[in-house]
Amino acid sequence: MPELRRDPVVGRWVIISTERPRRPDQFASGGVEAEELAPGEKCPFCESNERMTAPEISAVRPHGSHPNGPGWDIRVIPSISPLLRIEGNLDRHGHGMYDLINARGAHEIVIESPHHLREHELPKEQVVKSFNVILDRVQDLERDPDIKYVLIFKNYGKAAGGGHLHHARTQIIGTPVNLKRVKEELAGAKAYYDYKERCLFCDMLKQEMLYGKRIVAESRHFVALAAFASRFPFETWIVPKEHSCDFYKVERGKIPDLTELMTTVSAKMRKVIGDFPFNFVLHTAPFRRDAAKRGYWETIEWDYHWHFEILPILTRVAGFEWGSGFYINPLPPEDACKSVKEAKV
Amino acid sequence: MPELRRDPVVGRWVIISTERPRRPDQFASGGVEAEELAPGEKCPFCESNERMTAPEISAVRPHGSHPNGPGWDIRVIPSISPLLRIEGNLDRHGHGMYDLINARGAHEIVIESPHHLREHELPKEQVVKSFNVILDRVQDLERDPDIKYVLIFKNYGKAAGGGHLHHARTQIIGTPVNLKRVKEELAGAKAYYDYKERCLFCDMLKQEMLYGKRIVAESRHFVALAAFASRFPFETWIVPKEHSCDFYKVERGKIPDLTELMTTVSAKMRKVIGDFPFNFVLHTAPFRRDAAKRGYWETIEWDYHWHFEILPILTRVAGFEWGSGFYINPLPPEDACKSVKEAKV
Questions:
Q1: Phi then psi for A48, rounded to 5 degrees?
Q2: How is chain A split into domains, by residue range?
Q3: Are the beta carbons of A134 and A111 closer than 8 angstroms?
Q4: Which of B5, B320, B342 to mutate to test the interface with A (most CBs of A within 10 A)?
């Protein structure tokens, strides 16, 4: 079973694949990653190739077709190379001064079209369906008491770890521990709330709407924002106008509005920077809060505010970033915002 | 002047190059990075090309040659594209709820050979000289009251942000604020010390020496370790056996021993994984501690322990890492250690 190991200095967990590890010499430079499907290679995510994946967890089958066969709109499968497994137990244990947990959790893939389409080729109704399926999956995963957090993300393009299949999909990972990054955000949002008695994100939205130069686009319920301290050129946050700490409690009626804004922003970005690699990450509050109302959990409904982050991967993280935890961004977010906002689509 | 902006949520600073920004459309995908020096392109770091750089800050000129001309062993210059500048003032200020500082600081390059050599081609005596020059530069930078931390690192290879010049060098960056990553390490080390009344790193070394399976190599004064919770395949830490929080107070007599261990380990790693891209980062205590003896600074001499980290860049950071702050490592450090230890050089 893969293993979660805790760095004893900074408390960061690392998933070590002790189960199907690559041999050391397979990491030798010159290992070539495929860019595209090889001639004759089948995409395991396409309709009619259902047998290439593990049995599906759920699917949208509007015409009542059979599981693991064709006739679906959205299909959810266990990851082909899961980082965390649904079977087994946590077994938190120590090894001398070190801490370990079995890599218990969940790793699912939401296949967002039966057809071989990339993210930007998805019809809007498929994106809406995918969001609804994700919400269903999270509600289901919440019932597993060993899962502390559910992370939703997309990797698109080689530089962003998106692989060579190029079939639109979203990943869902349920982890047995709370995430370092989430804890940091909750602690920061709480510190602001404790001082100001207002939500940091609500204040930020208000200031940004007044200032205007970092607002990329807005819809009825959401704002697309070039973050003030963007780590990456064209980093864009999608933030709900109404205060809420939980994406998972979003009114489903708002999903088409969210989809509309996201597809517009993404099309405008493509107009400026072409077919860009990106990571897309949901930032939302942990769902298992009643059992742990203390510290930064206390006022979480008031002080935290869920949002998506679109992170284009156009620059490299290097020694400065690893050593400092800071970032270098060669493009002021105001310039990025202007060019994306003005792009015609 | 470039600007340091603070992320209001997690307190991370980002350097925004507002001075010579690239145009938004220059980030469009397909922008090609050079892999090698173009035919006829001169390396600005080579002897006799001194005029291609800004005037040198210092140099080792054993035969008394003139500054900014040939006849040197090691040469220190201001970065050609500095992230932080020595001129101007900090000007900490706010913009509504946001915080900014002018990018005041220092960004220097230590050129480690007058000849066009890569890192692994450097004769050991050049590495020793370079370490000594770095120690001198840090002592000098410490006199600038606006510099709070000095970060020492190397980027080698394209994937690690090392560029296309392939001339051995180390970067020195002095920052006007303490680093997020350093604060996290100091806080973690202090928490351990508060509980155990022992140094975390000293305990770790003791456990590792007993266990043995993650010890890559050792010299008289230093140990090369495959970190228990390695983020990256072949991640290797170089840790001094004797407790000390300050690299900058290392006895200079130990530098040849450090160099010997580092060059051996690096040669063994190359034997296993070829010409691998890497970042090399020094982790040491902040030097300006007397003015701020509080919180995690209080017991820093006892609880922190300097070390180097060699981070081979053979895998990609993607959505999971950005969203979680955790990492995925497909190679158990024990396997990496075994193969490197056994490599014959």
A1: 80, -10
A2: 3-19+34-175, 180-342
A3: no
A4: B320
Eight-state DSSP code of residue B120 = G
The structure tokens listed for A175 are 């982890």
Instruction: Check whether B31 has a pLDDT greater than 60.
Output: no
CATH number of A3-19+34-175: 3.30.428.10
Chain B residue with the nearest C-alpha to that of A96: B207
Question: What is the arithmetic mean of pLDDT over A153-168?
Answer: 93
Whether A130 contacts A252, CB under 8 Å: no
Which among B215, B175, B204, B176 has a CA at the least distance from the CA of B303? B204
Alpha helices (H) in B142-199, listed in sequence order = 180-196
Q: Which CA distances in Å does A8 have to A12, A91, A197, A202, B228?
A: 8, 18, 34, 36, 9
Check CB contact under 8 Å for A325 and B184: yes
Task: Look up residue A296 and give its DSSP letter.
Answer: G
- The interface predicted TM-score (ipTM) is 0.91
Give the homologous superfamily in CATH for domain B180-342. Answer: HIT-like (3.30.428.10)
Cross-chain CB nearest to A181 (options B192, B211, B323):
B323
Provide the pLDDT for residue A47.
Answer: 97
Out of A190-199, A259-268, A304-313, B286-295, least confident range: B286-295
Taking Cα atoms as reference points, which of A55, A126, A129, A111 lies closest to residue A86? A55
Distance CA B262, CA B124 (A): 10
CB nearest B326 (choices: A15, A98, A276) = A15
**Beta bridge mates, A72:** none
CB-CB neighbours of A89 under 10 Å? 11
Residue B293 pLDDT class (50, 70, 90 cuts): low
- Please tell me whether the overall predicted TM-score, pTM, comes out greater than 0.80 for this model: yes
- Average pLDDT in the A267-283 region? 96
- Identify which of A24, A277, A279 has the shortest CB distance to residue B331: A24
Could you tell me if A219 lies within 8 Å of chain B, comparing CB atoms? Answer: no
* pLDDT score for A342: 97
CATH of B3-19+38-175, one of 3.30.450.20, 3.30.428.10, 3.40.50.720, 3.90.550.10: 3.30.428.10
Burial class of residue A225, CB neighbours in 10 A (0-12, 13-18, 19+):
buried
**Of B163 and A238, more confident:** A238
| A300, containing H or E segment | helix A300-303
Residue identified by tokens 């200031």 is: A207
Token pair in block for residue A202: 């609500």
What is the tens place of the pLDDT at every residue in B181-237? 999 999 999 999 999 999 999 999 999 999 999 999 999 999 999 999 999 999 999
Whether B322 and B296 have beta carbons less than 8 Å apart is answered as: no
Tens of pLDDT along B229-267? 999 999 999 999 999 999 999 999 999 999 999 999 999
pLDDT number for residue B81: 81
User: Could you give the strand order of the β-sheet that contains A278-283, starting from the edge strand earlier in sequence?
Assistant: A58-60, A74-78, A106-111, A169-175, A149-156, A278-283, A307-312, A236-240, A222-226, A215-218
Mean pLDDT of the A51-74 span: 96
Whether A33 and chain B come into contact, CB under 8 Å, resolves to: no
